[in-house]
Amino acid sequence: MLENLMARFADYLRHNEFSISPAAVHEAIQLAPHLDMKDRFEFQSSLSQLWVKHPYEQEKFNECFKEFFFYQIQDKMQEVEQSVKAKQKMVWTEKEIQKAEKRRDKQKSNKNNQDKKGEDKHNLLSDSEKQWMKDTMVQINPTFNKLYEQAMKGQFKALLQEDKLSKYSPGDISKFAEELSWQAVLSEKTSIVFDSIQETTTFLLSMRKDIIKFKNQIKESISGIEKSELRGMRKVVQTEIDRLKTRDIKGLSKKEVQLLREHIQATSDYFLTRVSKVLRKTRKEADIDAARTVRKSIETMGVPINLYYHRPKVDKTKIDIILDVSGSVIKSAEFLSHFAYLIHERFPSQVRVFVFVGLLDEVTDYYKNEEMEVAVKQSLKNANIDYRGYSNYDTALRMYYEEYGSELDQDTLLFFLADGRNNRNSPRIDLMKEFRGRAKHIFWFNPDIKMKWNQGDSVIGKYAPYCDAVFETLNVKQLEEALYSSVEYIEESHMVMEV
């Protein structure tokens, strides 16, 4: 059988413009007993070495090998004379054709009655052929055999639960079919077996596609439900955050403060993007270096051909934040500290934070902690001040002026968060005038209700003339709006200066 098969393959190659002599065919037949026919790749490689004479023919040879043994084998199992040239072809016998027609009729009937499960697709095979198919499939790939049997019996649920078929690629199934076909060639099976192999392959591929499609539909359905629930949850959470933002900061619980803190941290990108525009480095215009220009002009008989400039000075915008941490405004100071921490984290050398009740102390070093909550808590609780007293702007402003006033310049932004209630102490308006003359901008955030400003011991009205803006910041929403308004004011003032 093998000799006849090789002779027919040689004839097939000749019809595809290969030049193969009878001697070459005879040599291949003599070599055949020494080949491991179970390994079709070794068989293909051996024939290639004998019959391929030029490198450019190799690819065509491989295609012909696949066409002959796997694509057309079911139509070319017997030799008949069809022309004067005695071309050989493999054809089905009349009996096999009748069987195939019956099988196709059966398939058509099954297609119209898909609810009928457990139909045996191999009813045209003899018992021995059925057994051969089963044994060979188990030998090549037991998993495919099991999955195929489940599919034949309509056990779609089992296929889904095991979820093995979808893990194989179409290429894996095709390789399985090729190996099965090769075993059929070696076993001299009839063409109906090859047709059954092709049907098996098609069915496995179809089932794989159906399983993947079904799983994707389930996944999309679940995903849609999850997305809908997630949108609903986000809406609920967002609504809760919005509600908390409008609540008076003094009345927030620890849990509510924590929720707002997490929200501020999670949405910090936009805030920092806006602030970064204000804190970017500014390069001042270079001045002419007169001495160097004159000195260089000596080389050209006193005529200054080239102007020389001093190296341009690069300045950084600085922010000083002064927080009143007395009992009446400590929670508001905590929230502004959260924003201060975020700015300091991005621009560590450009932000300083100070706290006071009576005495004033710098707490910037605490902001080096990687945890915002820890840093803010330490900065508000561990400063070198007396937390038990009442707000005293006289002492606080004087200490800031004496220790840090000389560092204020036109690159400094000064922020106060305080209610302006000075407990009958001196408001030190003279120092506010000094700050106004030195700093570029001054903003005041007042956590006291606006209708109570300038009542009792409130002196906010005396500080307001020396500030670019004074904001009411009873809640987090107002605090955020005050920060953004301050940034917008600074940006607009820069634009005016440039014009």
UniProtKB/TrEMBL annotation:
<dbReference type="InterPro" id="IPR036465">
    <property type="entry name" value="vWFA_dom_sf"/>
</dbReference>
<protein>
    <submittedName>
        <fullName>VWA domain-containing protein</fullName>
    </submittedName>
</protein>
<feature type="region of interest" description="Disordered">
    <location>
        <begin position="97"/>
        <end position="126"/>
    </location>
</feature>
<dbReference type="InterPro" id="IPR008912">
    <property type="entry name" value="Uncharacterised_CoxE"/>
</dbReference>
<dbReference type="Pfam" id="PF05762">
    <property type="entry name" value="VWA_CoxE"/>
</dbReference>
